[in-house]
């Protein structure tokens, strides 16, 4: 999913910094601060969190939604039932507040995909689960086919099926979308086929008149936050720096998740940093426990199934900037927007296998994790002063990219979206790094010819990801 307002928060948030973004409010609620390293290495101000919200666990794993329960926790007291008119008024007010806090222009512009946001979401919030069991907090993310809200249980009753402090994610897919059932069916099938340790599958789903709603644990972060240059994560007073060890563990988990998906016959179809969610876990050690970030591949709205060894065929990849070269001909400049980078589908696109495309996307994410820049216009690339980092083939890769540009006749619009210069930005992240290991893995993932690209099983066996 796309992060809030297409931006990633990078500064510490404190109580007196004015109006916070919706996403930062949620992160602060979980005890997370995303901050640039301060001079002298001092830790940024943090807001800590206790209870089950701090570890993000959602212990109710039943595949069916819970029965609505009373929101009153005082034994012996009685509460007058809310009238339908009062409930409607409350839901309308809540939706208005949510729309003020989140940039809803994308949702409002495409009612054929997201529905009539104000009317449909107001009706949905009146559902017994959303009006009694869960308090919907805010819209926190949008994607190509759905939007996500954060919610927290309202009931402290001992009979409640919810943990009192478990924050959950609600993914709303409009029934107006022809693909509304697809992701739910895929998730249900994945739960039967695999343990899904590194896949963010839903706990259960339910529906309102307007939406299919999937309920999942609320993950603390997505990988796009960690790809921000020189970012540190302070998590319940635990500092996660983007070290080589952290990078290896995260990408090993992503590769395992992708392997689980491919073994089940599914291609992801839209693998990118925003679709890799991170949660905090505590791993037992000989002297106690060690905190660890666990990645889970999410958002299966573009997934496809096939029993073929190279996966299903499709004519486009979910996000153009991370699409493999064989899909580049799918995207052309929008003639109505000649000065913008908006792309449209070609008239007669060719179908390609998606397993190799997932591996290309994995390589692009790994490149991004190390602050390696994407392709710029030929003019900019020609005049750029290449910094010498931990990779030793900058000029060779520049020539490789230019050949791709010529073969596929890429214009400046598309070229900004493609990998080119391996420009190492992170100052000290790779001090103890053996460059050949990552070099070999990136080359294997980023072969222009999909037939030569390594498989996800070979990714897991690579020297870079070995224990």
UniProtKB/TrEMBL annotation:
GO terms for biological process: mitotic DNA damage checkpoint signaling. GO terms for molecular function: ATP binding; protein serine/threonine kinase activity. CDD domains: PKc. Signal peptide: none annotated. One of its GO terms (cellular component) is nucleus. It comes from the Eukaryota. Residues 1-17 have a biased composition (Low complexity). Residues 134-465 form the Protein kinase domain. SUPFAM superfamilies: Protein kinase-like (PK-like) (SSF56112). PANTHER family: OVARIAN-SPECIFIC SERINE/THREONINE-PROTEIN KINASE LOK-RELATED, PHOSPHORYLASE KINASE. This is Protein kinase domain-containing protein. It comes from Saitoella complicata (strain BCRC 22490 / CBS 7301 / JCM 7358 / NBRC 10748 / NRRL Y-17804).
């Amino acid at each position: 999913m796309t992060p809030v307002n297409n931006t990633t928060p990078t500064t510490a948030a404190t109580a007196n910094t004015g109006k916070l973004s919706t996403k930062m409010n949620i992160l602060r609620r979980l005890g997370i601060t995303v901050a640039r390293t301060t001079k002298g290495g001092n830790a940024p101000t943090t807001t800590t969190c206790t209870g089950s919200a701090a570890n993000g666990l959602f212990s109710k794993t039943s595949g069916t939604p819970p029965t609505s329960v009373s929101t009153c926790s005082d034994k012996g007291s009685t509460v007058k039932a809310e009238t339908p008119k009062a409930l409607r008024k409350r839901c309308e007010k809540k939706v208005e507040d949510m729309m003020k806090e989140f940039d809803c222009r994308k949702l409002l512009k495409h009612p054929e995909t997201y529905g009539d946001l104000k009317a449909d979401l107001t009706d949905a919030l009146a559902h017994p689960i959303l009006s009694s069991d869960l308090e919907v907090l805010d819209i926190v993310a949008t994607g190509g086919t759905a939007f996500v809200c954060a919610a927290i249980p309202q009931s402290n009753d001992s009979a409640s099926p919810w943990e009192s402090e478990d924050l959950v994610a609600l993914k709303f897919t409009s029934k107006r979308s022809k693909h509304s059932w697809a992701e739910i069916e895929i998730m249900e099938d994945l739960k039967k086929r695999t343990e899904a340790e590194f896949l963010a599958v839903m706990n259960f789903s339910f529906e309102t008149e307007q939406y299919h709603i999937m309920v999942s644990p609320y993950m603390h972060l997505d990988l796009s936050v960690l790809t921000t240059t020189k970012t540190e994560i302070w998590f319940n007073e635990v500092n996660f720096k983007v070290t080589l060890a952290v990078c290896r563990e995260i990408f090993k988990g992503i590769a395992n998740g992708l392997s689980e998906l491919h073994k089940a016959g599914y291609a992801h179809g839209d693998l990118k940093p925003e679709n890799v969610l991170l949660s905090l876990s505590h791993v037992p050690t000989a002297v106690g426990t060690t905190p660890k970030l666990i990645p889970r591949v999410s958002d299966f709205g573009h997934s496809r199934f096939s029993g073929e060894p190279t996966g299903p065929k499709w004519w486009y990849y979910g996000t153009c900037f991370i699409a493999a070269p064989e899909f580049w001909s799918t995207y052309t400049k929008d003639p109505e927007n000649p000065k913008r980078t908006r792309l449209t589908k070609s008239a007669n696109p060719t179908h390609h296998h998606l397993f190799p495309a997932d591996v290309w996307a994995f390589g692009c994410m790994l490149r991004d994790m190390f602050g390696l820049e994407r392709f710029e216009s030929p003019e900019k690339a020609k005049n750029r002063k290449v910094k010498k980092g931990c990779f030793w083939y900058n000029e060779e890769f520049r020539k490789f990219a230019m050949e791709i540009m010529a073969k596929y006749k890429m214009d400046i619009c598309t070229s900004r979206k493609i990998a080119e210069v391996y420009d190492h930005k992170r100052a000290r992240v790779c001090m103890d790094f053996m460059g050949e290991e990552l070099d070999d893995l990136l080359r294997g993932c980023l072969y222009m010819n999909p037939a030569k690209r390594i498989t996800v099983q070979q990714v897991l066996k690579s020297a870079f990801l070995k224990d």
